[in-house]
């Protein structure tokens, strides 16, 4: 047995024996968390009391008998009123069923007999079907007998395909899903074409104008109408405000991008959906193993920005995401403990996560930071920085950084919002997500769209003689998180029937964490793309 909970709130789960079910012949029930991912997801395996032997049919057999007291009646009545369902595992294959139902007069009835039909192929279990029967009315003072039966039958389903019955191919491979991929691909083509148009036509015209001005006398140049991105060449590589935080965010975002890519590749090749908590376990492992990337990118960038407190930047970059994740998890965990749900993270699991951060992630991040500072931390800007900052001229409201930031997040969000629906449905509803190839393709399209949008936005910003492109480019990519969080609120209100303090807190807490990580990832991609774009255009212009 695993967990039990209300049907409308998938994450509001409780230990199976929190309801007064009989425990069978065993007086004590073992608890088992086989992996770190299972412990974090609240998957707690317990012996059900049902004795099953391989290929041995069992006729109707009594598990145990309970007497319905006032307390038992109230608990089971509440469970049936809230459509409680439970989950079982047999040979790692999940089984779901409901506890009972209410009659038209609101009287509680529970299912007392479990019939297990098990298919086998050779010496391996390949199919399980649970059929409930014998609906019994609950009345205080009356006994209720729980029974089960088992029937085995040969099956032609190969062991490698035994999970196919759990996968909703029609839902995930719907034509809308394919259309969203095609739509995102066309958007990528349009944006890439737009970037090339800027590079090949607009910049060529700018170069021609600037080169023409090179032949003018100083007086003619001063009397001429000078404008455009070349005029800020002495400030475009000026150190931005709070370079420590910027470098840490970019390093963390680059780290997340690598983790997402590797984890999706592993999920695509290893069918992680067949393992309980498999994707979370592999994501944690990859995150820890690739920690040097965070230090490499963040440390080198901070050194290029002429930062002096590199130890402070290293500590901030190494702990930024872990502290964010732990803060949200701690807050949600307090409510989970109050509700006594199985989602409450055990103390030993917290210690395990803390040990991974302290003894794996931080040391590896330090190695990456040292390598980044020494290998890639040299300042090699194509333009020197003026001693005195140039005043930023007034411009139209739609060229202000704030407007560009908000506008830049729309197109990346438009390229993934349909995929977000499928991801949300698999996590918050009752679908098993298995189309990781779609997710990997959407991730690559998202990175391309974000890079193109931030490059275009950076050009418009610099062309208005505003050199504050570093934070603008990062926040332009990160602004997708705003739209993703708004969409998650829409999904909660109109696509689900979730209710209650715990489920609401769980949903919005972890969606805030997901959207923040998505924003940091896209922000880093946007900054790196804009940085390369800026270096490219200024490296080909002659400046005094």
Automatic annotation (TrEMBL):
The keyword Cell wall biogenesis/degradation does not apply. The chain crosses the membrane at residues 178-200, 244-267, 279-302, 314-339, 345-367, 403-424, 430-462, 474-494, 506-530. InterPro entries: EMP70 (IPR004240). One of its GO terms (biological process) is protein localization to membrane. Its main location: membrane. It is found in: Membrane. It holds the Pfam family EMP70. Keywords: Membrane, Signal, Transmembrane, Transmembrane helix. It is a multi-pass membrane protein. GO terms for cellular component: membrane. Belongs to the nonaspanin (TM9SF) (TC 9.A.2) family. PANTHER family: TRANSMEMBRANE 9 SUPERFAMILY MEMBER 3 (PTHR10766:SF41), TRANSMEMBRANE 9 SUPERFAMILY PROTEIN (PTHR10766). This is Transmembrane 9 superfamily member. It comes from Paragonimus heterotremus.
């Amino acid at each position: 047995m695993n967990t039990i909970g209300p049907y409308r709130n998938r994450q509001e789960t409780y230990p199976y024996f929190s309801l007064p079910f009989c425990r069978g012949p065993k007086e004590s029930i073992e608890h088992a968390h086989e992996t770190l991912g299972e412990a974090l997801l609240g998957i707690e395996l317990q012996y059900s009391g049902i004795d099953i032997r391989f290929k041995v049919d069992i006729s109707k057999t009594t598990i145990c008998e309970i007497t319905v007291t006032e307390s038992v009646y109230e608990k089971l009545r509440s469970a049936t009123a809230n459509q409680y369902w439970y989950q079982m595992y047999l040979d790692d294959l999940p089984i779901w069923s409901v506890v009972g139902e209410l009659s038209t007069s609101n009287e509680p009835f529970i299912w007392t007999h479990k019939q297990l039909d098990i298919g086998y192929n050779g010496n391996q279990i390949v199919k399980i079907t649970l059929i409930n029967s014998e609906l019994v009315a609950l009345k205080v003072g009356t006994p209720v007998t729980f029974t089960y039966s088992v029937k085995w039958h040969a099956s032609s389903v190969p062991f490698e395909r035994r999970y196919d019955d759990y996968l909703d191919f029609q839902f995930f491979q719907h034509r809308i899903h394919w259309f969203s991929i095609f739509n995102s691909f066309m958007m990528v083509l349009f944006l890439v074409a737009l970037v090339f148009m800027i590079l090949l036509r607009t910049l060529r015209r700018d170069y021609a104008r600037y080169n023409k001005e090179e032949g003018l006398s100083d007086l003619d140049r001063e009397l001429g109408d000078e404008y455009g991105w070349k005029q800020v060449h002495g400030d475009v590589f000026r150190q931005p405000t709070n370079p420590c935080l910027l470098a840490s965010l970019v390093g963390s975002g680059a780290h997340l991008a690598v983790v997402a890519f590797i984890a999706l590749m592993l999920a695509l090749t290893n069918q992680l959906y067949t393992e309980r908590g498999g994707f979370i376990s592999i994501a944690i492992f990859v995150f820890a193993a690739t920690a040097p990337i965070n230090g490499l990118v963040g440390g080198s960038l901070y050194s290029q920005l002429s930062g002096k407190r590199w130890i402070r930047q290293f500590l901030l970059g190494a702990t930024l995401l872990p502290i964010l994740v732990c803060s949200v998890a701690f807050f949600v965990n307090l409510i989970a403990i109050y509700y006594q749900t199985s989602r409450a993270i055990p103390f030993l699991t917290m210690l395990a996560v803390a040990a991974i951060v302290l003894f794996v992630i931080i040391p590896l991040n330090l190695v990456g930071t040292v390598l980044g500072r020494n290998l890639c931390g040299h300042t090699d800007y194509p333009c020197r920085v003026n001693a005195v900052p140039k005043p930023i001229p007034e411009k139209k409201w739609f060229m202000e950084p704030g407007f560009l930031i908000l506008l830049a997040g729309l197109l990346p969000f438009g390229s993934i919002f349909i995929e977000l629906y499928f991801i949300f449905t698999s996590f918050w509803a009752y679908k098993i997500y298995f189309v990781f190839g779609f997710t990997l393709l959407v991730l690559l399209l998202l990175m391309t769209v974000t890079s193109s949008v931030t490059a275009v936005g950076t050009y418009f910003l610099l062309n208005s003689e505003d050199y504050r492109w570093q934070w603008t480019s990062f926040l332009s990519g990160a602004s997708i998180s705003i739209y993703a969080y708004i969409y998650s609120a829409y999904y909660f209100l109109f696509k689900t029937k979730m209710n209650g303090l715990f489920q609401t807190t769980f949903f919005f807490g972890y969606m805030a964490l997901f959207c923040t990580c998505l924003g940091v990832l896209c922000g880093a991609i946007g900054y790196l793309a804009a940085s390369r774009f800026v270096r490219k255009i200024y490296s080909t212009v002659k400046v005094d």
